[in-house]
Amino acid sequence: MAGISSIVANQTFFNATQGTAAQMGIKTGLNAVARPGAILLDNDIDQHTKKFSASKEFLYQAISLAMYMLVIIPIFKNGAYKLAAKKFNDEAVFKAFKSPDKFKSYLKLDEAGKVKKLKELSKNGDTFSRNNITEKSEHLANGVIETSSLIGTVLGLAVIAPLTATKAIHPILKAVGLVKEDEKKA
User: Fold this and answer.
1) CA gap 68, 160 in Å, rounded
2) Global pTM?
3) What is the rounded CA–CA span in Å between residue 145 and residue 84?
4) Longest CA pairwise span in the chain (Å)
5) Phi and psi of 48, rounded to 5°?
6) 77 falls within a domain
7) In 3D, which of 85, 59, 47 has the Cα closest to residue 176?
8) Structural domains in the chain (count)
9) Structural domain of 77
10) For residues 131 and 92, what is the distance between their CA atoms, to the nearest angstrom?
11) pLDDT in tens, 53-62
C-alpha cells in the first residue's frame, strides 16, 4: 500500500493527471486495453468472433484516443485560448503566455518559480509581475483552457471521434484479414 500512496502523492503524478484532457486520455487509454481484454476473456464467444470483436473495440478506442489527443483537444484548447486573448486583451496573463501549454507550465510552478518566470518574461520589454498576473487572472486563463477541453471532450468523444473511427475500422480489419469480402456483404 505504501507504493501506491507514494505514487499518488508524487507531485509529478499529480501534475500529469490534472486537467480534463489528461483525465479523458487516461480513461480512453484504459478502455483501449480493458474492453478488448474483457472480450478475449469471455469463453462463451467463438474464437473468430472474439478476435473480431476485441480487435474492433481496440481500434475504436485507439482511433478515438488518437483523434482526441492529437486533433480535438489541441484545436479546442488553442482556439479558445487565442479567442480569450483577443477578448481579454488587457489581461497580462494572455500577453505573457502566448499558448495554453506555456501557461500550464507556469501554473505548476510554486510561488518563487512563478516570480522567477515572470522576471524572465519581463526581459522582452513587457513588465510582468505578481501585481498584474494575479490568482484571478490565472483562474481566468485556466478556466478558458479547462472549459474548452471539456467542450472538446464532449464533442470529440461523443461525435467526431466515433464518426472517424467507424469509417476507419473495417478497412483496417480487412487489411489484417479479420473481415473477408463475403462477410462484409452479409
Assistant:
1) 9
2) 0.72
3) 10
4) 70
5) -65, -45
6) yes
7) 59
8) 1
9) 20-177
10) 10
11) 999 999 999 9
